[in-house]
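ok so dumb question maybe but i'm new to this and my supervisor (M.) told me to 'just get the structure for PTS system mannose-specific EIIBCA component' and walked off. so i did the thing. is this what she meant?? sequence i used:
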Amino acid sequence: MNILAVTACPAGVAHTYMAKKALEKAGKEKGYKIKVETQGSMGIENELNEKEINKADVVIIAADTKIEKSNRFIDKKIYETSVSSAVKNAAKVIESSIKELA
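this is what came out, is it supposed to look like this??
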């Protein structure tokens, strides 16, 4: 399973990075390939490229604000959730995204 995610919160500081870390950890524990882009006060970091997006089975958007460049995912299956859900229970977010979209 190839999973991509974008995390973003209004302030774009702590919770954005906490969600990134939680999703990466949960994905790796399940044996999935996962890459997480963050969007926040530092701009876009770890930006997902076209090749990665094309290979993705699932795209998770864990955001409490509008993400930049959302048109990159127009033809992808997208699972949307809050940043706090990703922080509190990343494994459930990942499993729910797979169950609903893959």
